[in-house]
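Regression test case RT-17, inverse folding.

Input:
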């Protein structure tokens, strides 16, 4: 039995059954010697307001926010950090001085695996909250960024907000790039697992970064590897953004190498 304050944490999204956040953060709580539990809350968009009200009423210490709530959550909180406001999306809720605050650690997580890459030309697929974090981080590091999505209007809004170029989805394969980023849910475990946002040839000199982390590797990453491209799994980003979240909630941390090994084992399709 815990004698210290019980920390109640969790992830909100729809769907959320694929998320490895509960496995990671519950392990992190044990590793840090903290008393707490991290849950998964599957909340449809029309129930988001009621969920945030529950966060305010219940002793919920912090929340991870995932698809499709990263943009809508900004309208439901008391304060938004400057970075989350600039990006236009949040992936983290925390309490500060009695106020419910929306923050964004996705950009920290996204940039961590590409910190050593020299800025060049990037093509970002998608126009949601994950894409916003990617474009924000890339532009801040001096990358030239084009963004495309099946909803061109959303891509154009993102591009205008963050200083990128919007291109129609059907013309995405005509562009030259050094870095291709998938910020769509295409390829995610579930109904879209057999999908890929890119079926055309890939330049061998490019780096392909799939923000989807389950399954690992995704169909896109397998295609890129066969094409001779350097690849980055979404698992690296997932762990880095989770480390930043965990520190914001608990002022503690956890080792990234052990976390990646834990999740790689969970994602392994082979029998134990």
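Golden output:
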């Amino acid at each position: 039995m815990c004698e210290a304050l019980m920390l109640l944490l969790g992830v909100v999204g729809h769907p959320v059954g694929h998320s490895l956040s509960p496995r990671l953060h519950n392990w992190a709580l044990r590793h840090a010697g903290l008393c707490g539990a991290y849950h998964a809350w599957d909340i449809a968009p029309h129930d988001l307001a009621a969920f945030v009200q529950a966060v305010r009423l219940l002793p919920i210490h912090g929340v991870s926010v995932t698809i499709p709530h990263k943009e809508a959550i900004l309208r439901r909180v008391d304060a938004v950090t400057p970075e989350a406001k600039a990006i236009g999306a949040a992936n983290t809720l925390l309490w500060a001085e009695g106020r419910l605050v929306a923050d964004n650690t996705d950009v920290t997580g996204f940039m961590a695996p590409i910190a050593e890459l020299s800025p060049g030309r990037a093509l970002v697929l998608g126009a949601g909250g994950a894409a916003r974090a990617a474009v924000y981080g890339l532009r801040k590091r001096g990358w030239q960024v084009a963004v495309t999505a099946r909803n061109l209007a959303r891509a154009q809004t993102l591009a205008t907000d963050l200083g990128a170029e919007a291109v129609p989805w059907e013309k995405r394969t005509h562009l030259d790039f050094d870095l291709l980023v998938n910020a769509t849910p295409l390829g995610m475990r579930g109904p879209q697992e057999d999908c890929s946002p890119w079926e055309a040839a890939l330049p061998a000199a490019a780096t392909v970064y799939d923000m989807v982390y389950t399954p690992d590797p995704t169909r896109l990453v397998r295609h890129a590897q066969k094409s001779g491209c350097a690849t980055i799994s979404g698992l690296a980003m997932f762990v880095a953004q989770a480390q930043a979240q965990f520190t914001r909630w608990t002022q503690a941390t956890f080792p990234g190498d052990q976390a990646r090994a834990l999740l790689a084992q969970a994602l392994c399709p082979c029998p134990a």
